[in-house]
Amino acid sequence: MNKLLTTAVLALGIFGSVYAQDAKRLLPAEQEVSLKYGADRLGKRQDADMKKFRDNRLGAFIHWGLYAIPGGEWNGKMYNGAAEWLKAWAKVPADEWLTLMDRWNPKKFDAKAWAKMAKKMGVKYVKITTKHHEGFCLWPSKYTQYTVAQTPYKKDILGELVKAYNDEGIDVHFYFSVMDWSHPDYRYDIKSPEDEVAFARFLEFTDNQLKELATRYPTVKDFWFDGTWDASIKKNGWWTAHVEQMLKEMLPGVTINSRLRADDNGKRHFDSNGHLMGDYESGYERRLPDPVKDLKVTRWDWEACMTVPENQWGYHKDWSLSYVKTPLEVLERIVHAVSMGGNMVVNFGPQPDGDFRPEEKELADAIGKWMKENGACIYGCDYAGWDKQAWGYYTRKEKDVYMIVFNQPYSGHLMVKTPKGIKITKAVLLNGKEVGVEETARNEYNVDMPAKNPGAPFVIKLQVEEEKSTTDKYREALT
Ligand code: FHN
Questions:
Q1: Span from the CA of 329 to the centroid of ligand 1 (angstroms)
Q2: Radius of gyration of the chain (CA)
Q3: Which class would CATH give 2-375?
Q4: Amino acid 29: pLDDT
Q5: Which atom of ligand 1 lies nearest, measured to the CA of 347?
Q6: Looking at residues 251-270, what average pLDDT do you find?
Q7: How far is ligand 1, taken at its centre, from the CA of residue 135, in Å?
Q8: CA distance linking residue 161 with residue 288, whole number of Å
Q9: 463 CB contacts (<8 Å, ≥6 apart)?
Q10: Least confident of 123-132, 355-364, 404-413
């Protein structure tokens, strides 16, 4: 390992993702396989749009489509599986499923109310399912008949939402399923020349829809692709690279998730050389990296998404069929993600009438209340690089390190171990009140609990002093 790389790895250990982009190659360049459609960049994107994506940290996911109408029930039978997959569970033919369009008339839908709810929850961006696997489009696409325009509702729901969220200062991201159950040319695999011709037509259709979305809604900040796991897509890695490039040319600054991408060998998310494709990793779905074993995630940008019940994205009538996370559990997942340098997107599945179920409204309120008071430890924060302690999580914004305490120790002392060369000079609550700090050993401190028990997860901000050491040496080595 050369001197520069050694220093970079050392700095990575201490300062985490802030400098991670510099530890670039996993293998010596000569041992990497040559790829035409692999990663087009090593390390994190550092431009303003990516920084905004990262600083947002908290988002909401909206899964809304025809599946909201049956809500998990078909012909009197309730299915436990994900509601947006009901067509598959109940083996409903596509043409029969798409007749649900005749019933799409969400009388209570109010884009402005949705945007206000998101604002109150403290989310900085919303990911909307423009088209889920069923193929129904929330915008009036001219490339298919299966759109909102052909329903009793008629109006462009996506357009209304983009405007309403943007008016509240909330970024809009587009979820787009490549897999499309409504399209006769979609193929799960390519096994014959006929498949090849049909799938080529399908890819052209998909390009057209994507260009249409980018042209109609130019304020969109991100495309989040899904339904890209089939052999047909893996055999066409070139197309995934082409889509990324096409959208980036049309919408400079746009971000694209790793799930879109496959390389020349059909390797997904990370290319055959282990480099992340797309701008951020999007594989953490309903799960999170382990805070001790999976620290490698701090080397790239990533975003996790989370359902509130175990596995329901679209509206399901009966939430009693699985465990439903409490607001506290959702909150802990948000903090967990940010403490490891990731974003968290919390899912909502609106009802067919366009309103949200009461549980989701309550959840949004509870998260919003906490974020209003404690958002400083989330927005713009990153992995701190400090060893995790049983009481909770650390996040960091420049010189401030935040302790987010979920488990209060009976002793009243919160043990903190600082990395070598870092001293704690002061500890304050977010309301400015100071709490005691005692140095108990080299790089070990006891931070006091607030005098008045907050009774909920609370935040302590640590002010720290770094010896002019590793960071500066590292910077000097680079210049
Ligand atoms: O099949 C979909 C599922 O319905 C949902 O949209 C999630 C969201 O990440 N993505 C797929 C499963 O990975």
A1: 21
A2: 24
A3: alpha beta
A4: 85
A5: 8
A6: 98
A7: 14
A8: 29
A9: 399, 400, 424, 425, 426, 427, 428
A10: 404-413
**pLDDT beyond 60 at 410:** yes
Confidence (pLDDT) at 452: 87
User: Is the model's pTM score more than 0.90?
Assistant: yes
- Fold match flag (2-375 vs 392-478): no
Q: What is the mean pLDDT of the chain?
A: 93
**Residue for token digits 């028990």?**
453
Closest ligand 1 atom number to CA of residue 84? 4
Ligand 1 and 225: CB distance under 6 A: no
Taking CA atoms, 252 is separated from 175, 177, 187, 226, 255, in Å, by 18, 22, 31, 22, 9
CB neighbours of 52 closer than 8 A, spacing ≥ 6? Answer: 171, 221
> What is the total residue count of the chain?
479
Q: Tell me, using a 6 A CB cutoff, whether residue 82 lines ligand 1.
A: yes
Within 10 angstroms of residue 293's Cβ, the number of other Cβ atoms is: 7
Task: List the chain domain ranges.
Answer: 2-375, 392-478
Q: Are 72 and 313 in contact (CB under 8 A)?
A: no
Count other Cβ atoms within 10 Å, centred on residue 292. 8
Architecture (CATH level 2) of domain 392-478: Sandwich (2.60)
Tokens standing for residue 247: 């959208």
Q: How far is the CA of 226 from the centre of ligand 1 (A)?
A: 7
In the numeric block, which tokens belong to residue 303? 């975003």
**Residue 285 Cβ < 6 Å to ligand 1:** yes
* Strand runs labelled E in 153-226: 171-177, 222-226
230 CB under 6 A from ligand 1? Answer: no
* pLDDT at residue 76, as a whole number: 98
Range among 99-108, 450-459, 461-470 rated most confident: 99-108
pLDDT 10s digits, 324-350: 999 999 999 999 999 999 999 999 999
4 pLDDT higher than 50: no
